[in-house]
C-alpha cells in the first residue's frame, strides 16, 4: 500500500497534527478539531463534534459497518499534550523536526498524537483497498486526558451518545517499548492525588517541643516513605511488575513563614503540607489503603487532615456488581487474541500483557465493564512520554500504521462464532 500513498505525505500529515500546540493548560483545541474534521472529510468518514464543556471539543468519527447490530469498535485517543520546558529541548517541541536519523521531535509524538493519526492512516489504506467493515468503527479524539479527563472521557463515557454507540471494545494508548516487542496493557493504575496537612502550635525556632506542624508532617512523611520502599522492594526483587504495586511519590512540600528575603528562620510554622501522587493497581485493597491514609499518614491524633480530591477512584476496575475485577487476557476475551494475531500477521511481536503503570482515559470505559486495551505500536523506542525531546522514528511510525491496518481489519470483521450465539439462545 505504501507505493500508492507516499510515505512523505503520511509523515507530513503527522507533522501537521504535531505542530498544533495542544499543550495544557491552554491547548488549541479548536485548531486540532478543525484539522481532524478536515482529515475525516477527506476519508469520507461521518463526523460530529461533541462539546460537553464549552471550548473543549471531542471529535467523534464513524465508519459504518455492514452489521450495525454488532457491538462497535472504539479507537480512542486524546488531543492534549503535557507542557514543555522549551529551552531544554534540542529541537522546538511544536516544529516536528525530522533529524537525519528519521526521528520526529515533538511533544505528543509518543503521547499520543501518533496513535490518533495512525488510526486515520490505517483507515485511509483500508478504504483505498476496498475493505468494508462488518462492525461499526468509531474514532474519538478527546480533550483533557492529561488533567484527568473530567471534561472529556468521563462525560463522554456517561453520555447517551456513547450508550447508543454500543461499544464492544476500546483501544487506547500504551507505552513505547525499548525492545522489539510491543507493550500491551489490559488494565491500569488509578491516580489518587493526596494532600496531607499538619497543624500545630507555632514556637520559637530554638525551642524543642512536641506536636509542631513540621514534626507532625515529618512523622507522616517517614511512614509514607517506609510504605513506598516496601512496594518498590517488591519491584526491585522481581516479585511484582511496576503496574502491580502501589506507587507513592512526594510531589510537593509547602511550609514556612515567608519573609521578603526568603523565610523566617527563628519561627516554627503552625501549618505544613505535602502532596503525593499515588497510583493504585486494580488488584489493590483500596479500603486498607484508605485506612492507612486516615490512621497512619494523616491521623487526627497528630492534628492532621487530608484531601484526596476529585482524583480518588475507589473501584479502578469493576464488574457489573461493582466488585474489583481484573480484565481477562486469555481466550475468554476474544479481543486480546485477535490483537495478538493481527500484530503477528503484520510482522510485529507482542510482549506479555501488563498493567499500565500510569493512568489513561481507558479507566472511564473499564469502569463501565467494557474491555479496553492499551497499545501504542512503538517498538525499539525509548520511553519518552512527558520527557524532554520526546520523539518517534518515522520508520517506526509507519510500521505502526501496518499494525493498525491489520488490527482494524481483524476487529471490524470479527463475528462471534455461530455455535456460541446459539448456546446463548439456549440459556
Ligand atoms: C491523573 S489523570 C492521568 C494523566 C496522565 N495520563 C498520568 O498518568 O499522569
Ligand atoms: Zn500523558
Ligand atoms: Zn496519553
Contiguous helical run count: 11
Q: What structural class do you assign from the helix and strand content?
A: alpha/beta
What is the approximate shape? elongated
Bound molecules: methionine, zinc ion
Q: Mean pLDDT, nearest integer? A: 91
Oligomer: single chain
Biggest beta sheet attributes: 6 strands, mixed
Round the Cα radius of gyration to an integer and report it.
24 Å
Portion of residues within helices: 25-40%
Strand tally: 21
Descriptive account of the structure:
This protein has 427 residues and is of the alpha/beta class. Helix content is 32%, strand content 22%. It has helices spanning 7-18, 29-42, 113-128, 153-158, 160-165, 213-236, 286-297, 334-345, 362-366, 394-413, 418-426; strands at residues 46-50, 58-63, 72-78, 97-98, 103-105, 137-142, 167-172, 181-182, 185-188, 190-199, 203-204, 247-255, 258-259, 262-263, 267-268, 271-280, 304-307, 349-350, 354-356, 372-374, 391-393. Strands 1-2-6-3-7-20 form a six-stranded mixed β-sheet. Helix 1 runs antiparallel to helix 3, helix 3 packs across helix 10 (394-413) and helix 8 packs across helix 10. The chain is elongated and about 80 Å long. The model is unreliable at 314-324 and 418-427 (pLDDT under 50). It binds methionine and zinc ion (ZN) (2 copies). The site of one zinc ion has 5 residues, from loops.
